[in-house]
Amino acid sequence: MGDKKYWEEIYYKNLKESEKDFLKDVWMVKYKNIICNVKNKKALDLGCGLGQDSIWLVQNGFDVTSCDFSKKALKKFKKIYPKAKIMNIDITNDLPFEENLLGLVNANLSLHYFDFKKTIEIFDEIYNILEKGGLFIGRMNSDKNNYINENYVELEKNFYYDKLNDQHKRLFNKEQFDLLTKKWKIIILKEDETIRKGRKKYTWEFILQK
Ligand SMILES: C[S@@+](CC[C@H](N)C(=O)[O-])C[C@H]1O[C@@H](n2cnc3c(N)ncnc32)[C@H](O)[C@@H]1O
Prior knowledge:
The chain is α/β, with parallel strands linked by helices.
């Protein structure tokens, strides 16, 4: 799989200043009341990238461990925000955290790269490491996005291999999202849109509770 290589050697390496529009798009700001109500402030930002969400969470009282498998992203983030607590992990492996430990897990646009079975496993892992009542928040690609083209090979429903970038991508429809969230209490679930690198992106935005 070339996914790690893509994030390490293409995406973060070639990202221009003008393409970092997403650093200002801290999606969870509008849910501040719900998020800041969490008592246990131990939090994870999974697939943190350049860390704009992590910074917001720290500024709002959370003790955040910012995780990504791209060393390049973590290095750049640490330069922007030296007090960041970073961790180089691959989300597809077991998450190295105790069960029932955390109050909050954020995964913003970082869980739509895996087949459905693996995605379910990751949701289950996150469920296990959250304490009862803890929140899992994030955004994932919706199937309203129309960027699939002849370079994409469909491996399973809504899961693609992008031949051009040697990378996997997936989209979710409502039924698939419902399957993923079966054992969670849904606090927020809505289809929304955002801008990334100047391009419109449709997402499922969610706040789930264990
Ligand atoms: C679209 S970026 C989102 C980054 C950040 N959350 C944000 O909102 O800007 C996806 C991130 O997920 C990370 N990622 C993808 N697959 C991963 C994996 N298997 N393990 C850990 N991080 C992963 C990438 O390195 C990248 O930083």
